[in-house]
Amino acid sequence: QNNNDKKIIIATAANIESAMLALTNAYAHKTGVKFELIVGSSGKLTAQIMEGAPYDIFVAANMKYPEAVYAGGKAKNKPKVYAKGKLVLWSMIENTPISIAALSDPVIEHIALANPKTAPYGVAAQEVLQHYGLNEILGSKLVFGESIGQTDQFIISRAAQIGFTALSTVLSPEMKGKGSWILINPSLYSNISQGVVLVNRKEETNQGSQGFYDFLFSVEAKEILKEFGYLVDE
Amino acid sequence: MISLNLKKTLKSAGGKIDLNLQLTIEKGQFVTLFGESGAGKTSTLRMLSGLLRPDSGTIKVGETIWFDSHKNIDLKPQQRKVGYVFQDYALFPNMSVRQNLEYALQKNQDRTIIGELLEFAELGELEQRKPETLSGGQKQRVALVRALVQRPEILILDEPLSALDLKMRIKLQEYLLQVHKKYNLTTILVSHDIGEIVKLSDRVYELQNGSVIKKGTTTDFFGLNKTSAKFRFSGEVLKIQREDVLYVISVLIGNDIIKVVADRTEANNFKIGDQVLVASKAFNPIIQKI
Amino acid sequence: MISLNLKKTLKSAGGKIDLNLQLTIEKGQFVTLFGESGAGKTSTLRMLSGLLRPDSGTIKVGETIWFDSHKNIDLKPQQRKVGYVFQDYALFPNMSVRQNLEYALQKNQDRTIIGELLEFAELGELEQRKPETLSGGQKQRVALVRALVQRPEILILDEPLSALDLKMRIKLQEYLLQVHKKYNLTTILVSHDIGEIVKLSDRVYELQNGSVIKKGTTTDFFGLNKTSAKFRFSGEVLKIQREDVLYVISVLIGNDIIKVVADRTEANNFKIGDQVLVASKAFNPIIQKI
Amino acid sequence: MDWQPLVLTFKLAVVTTAILFVVSIPIARWLSSTKSKIRPVLETLVSMPLVLPPTVLGFYMLVVFSPENAFGNWLNEWLGIKLIFSFGGLVVASVIYSLPFMVQPIQAGLSSLPSTLKEASYTMGKSKMTTLLKVLLPNIKPSLLTGIVLSFAHTVGEFGVVLMIGGNMPGKTKVASIAIYDEVEALNYVAANSYSLILFTITFFILLLVYLTNGGYFKRYSQ
Amino acid sequence: MDWQPLVLTFKLAVVTTAILFVVSIPIARWLSSTKSKIRPVLETLVSMPLVLPPTVLGFYMLVVFSPENAFGNWLNEWLGIKLIFSFGGLVVASVIYSLPFMVQPIQAGLSSLPSTLKEASYTMGKSKMTTLLKVLLPNIKPSLLTGIVLSFAHTVGEFGVVLMIGGNMPGKTKVASIAIYDEVEALNYVAANSYSLILFTITFFILLLVYLTNGGYFKRYSQ
Ligand SMILES: Nc1ncnc2c1ncn2[C@@H]1O[C@H](COP(=O)(O)OP(=O)(O)OP(=O)(O)O)[C@@H](O)[C@H]1O
Ligand SMILES: Nc1ncnc2c1ncn2[C@@H]1O[C@H](COP(=O)(O)OP(=O)(O)OP(=O)(O)O)[C@@H](O)[C@H]1O
Ligand SMILES: [Mg+2]
Ligand SMILES: [Mg+2]
Question: Is the ipTM here above 0.85?
């Protein structure tokens, strides 16, 4: 129990888990601080924080959730963007033409994207389709994952021949070199800004959490995030 | 003394019977409820033992009121402590024969009775068996001795011997009489077997449509006293055979068939299945052991 | 003709019986299996009807082989078409009395038999009732007539009348005889009631420990032929009473009690419960209807 | 308020329960009467769909049924059946996932019937099928009811498997449970609450109706 | 491979099943014998936890049990019980969620016993409790088994409710189903597969053991 209290507990969105692992390892190496990662969907984590979950830092996959936490009086500071996601179009099936134009091809039966209602990558993908006027046309081909993780699973299981996902997915150690992908022009969708807040816990907040929070915006952290496929403000 | 004063409408989809019953049973008596199928015998026993709630009335046993609809007294079956042998045996399928008996033991009761009862009912070899592997008659024996384990003051027997073979039936009848006397039981039997009733019981109550229509001591009830003066048997005509000018009528009496010679007009009076009396004025019987 | 040649080890936790049975039953006969509880009567009937598989042996009915362990023939119970009255009734709880009977109808069978049977067994008023609301005897009547609905060639009765009152019992016995003849049935009965057996059956087979130990025509079996010459009853001593220098022994014969006078040495020979013969050399009975 | 997910949910629950009922009876019948040695193994297997987290089970199903893989391809090419991202797929997934809820109570019910009922029916020349339908099943009504209620309610509430294999397609595979989940995730608690309330209320009355019918409530008052 | 989630899962499943068993018997006993008019309503209510998607049910529980709200606060202040983000909370949530799987089969089993068994026991002076424990329950073993197996398997596989109320805290509330889910989300399919396989295998053998014991397999060979 005591041991646990010394750890910094980070609630992190599932899709940024591997980057967070790299970041916490780097910070731990430097300072000796211990971490514990609580992984979940941003929506769940938000609900839990609102009900007093013992998390020190909330690293979300968009801005909406940390803002809700802040609005609910559960954050110490206003949410701050630590990284921005990039959208890619990805397929695991060989010889699938990967382009926006090819999406209308009858060969493509299903296109996976994250649910725009709950995931920022979904909103981005929808904006892209809208930009090309494809939203209506492709309507019956679209399948929605509850999170970017599930969208990945649609693509990886080849149930959907192609799909929109995060650059961080295709660059992750597990997926590197699998299938083929193209980057979507970031100007076609609004920023996928990912925010972080320090949680305002009832109990005393772990002293080290401010340090890690600051570290997230350091040059070193930005390098790591870039490696994982995120866009950072230089 | 047991006083029953019971009213109960037995409801069912097909119709209803208004059970309306006054009965007094002396302590230590062995009484039989007799009557047609559906007359209400089982229902009466269930009300006495607390398994069926009368609509109104009273049940008094000795000085204790077991049920009184006005005073709102209604003892639980557990408090009434009657030994009850059910028509469908109600053996506990999860327990062996011995365990069925042991379950019936009361707190701190001497366990030797189990062995005694098992031996008596010739269940010794079957004591480890589960009820489902027993034959019909074996089940009935277990049900019977299980009801005796708790040495109840009142023993209720709902056709306890009907599925037994003659040998076992006689044995258990004897045992019933023995335990009835030994433990000073008040025993209430339902039976259709007149021989059995005569042998076992002191008094008989005949039920019809939920009411007592006839009652009396067993001998009075079946008119057996009259047989003391001269010899008379009741029996049933099995066969009427013509032999020359005479007729031979075969009558089943108990387990025996006797043949009675009759002339034509007499013979025409009878048909197969008739219940008849066979009597003789001159009768000097010899009795002999078998 | 039914030929049974059956071997079966009846296993159970407490021990085992090797059933080993040779039986031949003529078509149209009414035979009784008689014997102690646990002798294997029910098991034999179950093997005949295809509900229990013999370890080895043959069952032949008429020209058809129903079972032959060597030829690997084993007709299903459905193909054997026997009418079976089970010891536990086996009424279908989900169906009313009438529905239970109707269920037994064969394809295209004339439905009038239902009404006929309901009326005969006095079940007319109960026809809409569910089995659970019936008394024990009512259930047994339903089970009995249900087995008759399909007009089986072979009728199997496992203690069908044991829970019935005398009136109903006599009625159903008569009906059994009627249907047995009318439909040219081969009927196999298990019964412990000698009166019933004598009245109904042509032949008796006594089973003990899984084997036939005695068989014969009913009259031979029970030694009834001997009664034709002189009068002899079997009965049971109920009471031995001293009256002055003499003793009066009460003997239960069938439903009647007779009193026999005996002297002291004679009386000392008997005790209550003894099975005895009561005979008379001079016996000129009068028969009279009741 | 979008009613489509609710309609889809009850359609799915009804179809799934009906199929489960038909599929489970022979399985339960076999399990309750066989003396085969592999019975315990099969009994165990029937319960196994419950053991994996629904989304994970859904993922494995997705892999198996995907037309890119051998089995899914065979289904697609030879039978023309597509089980992913379709209502048919939801049904298949729900049937597999809820199988134990139907099989187990029916099996327990059949095991508890006295064997003479079956035997009596056989001696009347009735086939196994007739016996099952007219004698055995009507006498295990409480168990059938348990199976139906558990399967129905479970299908209404399931969303993990369904989300995975269905892909949350509006009007096609977006059932109420997914819609509610979406609203909760999106922090639209008011919308989630009203969906939940409606789902809850409708299901409550459906199940209440089932129980009342079973308890003879309507019969009693119609006489 | 981190074994903690697996240990936690089976601990949760055992504790939950045990509590459910104890809690459900009186409920089932009452439901099977009462003639009360509200019985169908209560029967329906027992099934209702199934109807909501697990995460949503978890969300409502989170709100109710949270110390931020009246009831949770009362629990916390007066009884010192904290039900969110704790193992105790997982147990309570699992018990509520799996209640129908235990209550319904037991109720169906009890309804099918002939009433003379109970009555015979009463006339022997045995209390309702003794009768229940020694006579009624031992004679509905298939139904008890159904309840135990369904509850156990369902608790092992559940993750929606548990994730919501437990918060995925390693060593405390991170059970195997959540760990698998995490790995799948993190695209670590190899890790997810090995977790699944282990979970599946262990549960398979636990349930097989239960079925073999029930089928008298061990008894038969010990004699
Ligand atoms: N549970 C019940 N509900 C409604 N009616 C019942 C119930 N049990 C018995 N009855 C009816 O009550 C009447 C009396 O039944 P009871 O069992 O007391 O008869 P009985 O005299 O014991 O008959 P039998 O000799 O056939 O056992 C019958 O008409 C029967 O149908
Ligand atoms: N299912 C079974 N499994 C094992 N043994 C059995 C089974 N059924 C009966 N037995 C045994 O087989 C033997 C013969 O039983 P059966 O039922 O044939 O006897 P029965 O002659 O009909 O007796 P009763 O007159 O008591 O009905 C008995 O010892 C019984 O315990
Ligand atoms: Mg009766
Ligand atoms: Mg028998």
Answer: no
